[in-house]
Amino acid sequence: MTEFQARLKKCREHCGLSYHSLQRLSDVSVGYLHTVETENVGKPSDKIIRKIADALGVSFEYLKDGEVIIRSYEIDSLLTRFRRLDKSDKDKFLQLVKLWSKEDK
After folding, report:
1. Based on the domain organization, do 9 and 59 belong to the same domain?
2. Cβ atoms within 10 A of the Cβ of 29, count?
3. Host domain of residue 85
4. Going residue by residue through the chain (105 aa), what tens digit of pLDDT does each one get?
5. In Å, what is the CA distance from 75 to each residue of 11, 21, 72, 95?
6. Torsion from C-alpha of 30, 66, 59, 24, nearest 10 degrees
7. 95 with 45, same domain?
8. What is the pLDDT of residue 73?
9. How far is CA 55 from the centre of its chain?
10. DSSP letter at 59?
11. By the 8 A CB rule, do 68 and 62 touch?
């Protein structure tokens, strides 16, 4: 399984979507979705990846290449939510961030 296929499957399952549900949301055929996720056929076109990404609620960049791009409005939203946390939850969140940064090294 390629990294793209793993991301697609993970996102689809995380959303609790069957191939049929994803087909209705993305307008990409069930057969093609199944083939792209399970068979060695390479990545679909950017147009198809964008349709699937939109249906899954993830960025095109993430689904295509695993690249996480955080847009400014997402940062603002994250900071607003962080500020609303109580001290204990803020501390837990910061501990997670430290763990993630250690994994990147």
Report:
1. yes
2. 11
3. 72-103
4. 899 999 999 999 999 999 999 999 999 999 999 999 999 888 999 999 999 999 998 889 999 998 876 666 677 778 888 899 999 999 998 998 888 877 655
5. 21, 30, 5, 19
6. 10
7. no
8. 66
9. 11
10. -
11. yes
Give the per-residue pLDDT at 71: 66
Judge if pTM exceeds 0.85: no
Q: Identify whether residues 56 and 79 lie together within a single domain.
A: no
Structure tokens at 53: 């990404």
73: phi > 0 → left, psi -120 to 50 → alpha, else beta; which? Answer: alpha
57: closest CA among 92, 25, 27, 28? 25
Task: Tell me 85's DSSP state.
Answer: S
